[in-house]
Each structure stands twice: as C-alpha cells, then as structure tokens.
Amino acid sequence: MDSIIAEIKKIPPVTRFMCISLFGLTLSTMLNLMSPYTFLYSSKLLWYKWQLWRLWSSFFLSGGGITFIFNLLML
C-alpha cells in the first residue's frame, strides 16, 4: 500500500488533481451516489445561487464505460 501511495505522489500535482477529479466524479455518478445534474454547468445556478463547483465539475464529468477510460488516458 505504501508503494502505491509513493507512486501516486510522483505524479505532478495538477495531473493528480485532474485524475482524481475525473475518477471521483464519474465513479460517484456511475454508482448513483450523486445525480449528474449536481455537477453540470448552469449559469443561473452559478451566478444567482453561488454554486461555484459547477465551473470545475462540469469539465470532469464523464459518461462511463469506454469514454471514461479514454478520458482518463488522455490526462
């Protein structure tokens, strides 16, 4: 387990953040832990209700399946 954590720490911080974001958001929607509509961009919700995570999360939400694997490989 320590070797896995050591390997993850070797990844540059920005890439690590992007991979964890993509993996976490997609996994939570695939397992129905959260609705995908919680993460999608909506300008009304962003500016009037100050849901600022929508700027970040809309880029990292993937459909699952083979597209998820390709998105993860592209990072």
Automatic annotation (TrEMBL):
<protein>
    <recommendedName>
        <fullName>Derlin</fullName>
    </recommendedName>
</protein>
<dbReference type="Pfam" id="PF04511">
    <property type="entry name" value="DER1"/>
</dbReference>
<dbReference type="InterPro" id="IPR035952">
    <property type="entry name" value="Rhomboid-like_sf"/>
</dbReference>
<dbReference type="GO" id="GO:0006950">
    <property type="term" value="P:response to stress"/>
</dbReference>
<feature type="transmembrane region" description="Helical">
    <location>
        <begin position="55"/>
        <end position="74"/>
    </location>
</feature>
<comment type="similarity">
    <text>Belongs to the derlin family.</text>
</comment>
<feature type="transmembrane region" description="Helical">
    <location>
        <begin position="17"/>
        <end position="35"/>
    </location>
</feature>
<keyword id="KW-1133">Transmembrane helix</keyword>
<keyword id="KW-0472">Membrane</keyword>
<dbReference type="InterPro" id="IPR007599">
    <property type="entry name" value="DER1"/>
</dbReference>
<keyword id="KW-0812">Transmembrane</keyword>
<keyword id="KW-0256">Endoplasmic reticulum</keyword>
<dbReference type="GO" id="GO:0005789">
    <property type="term" value="C:endoplasmic reticulum membrane"/>
</dbReference>
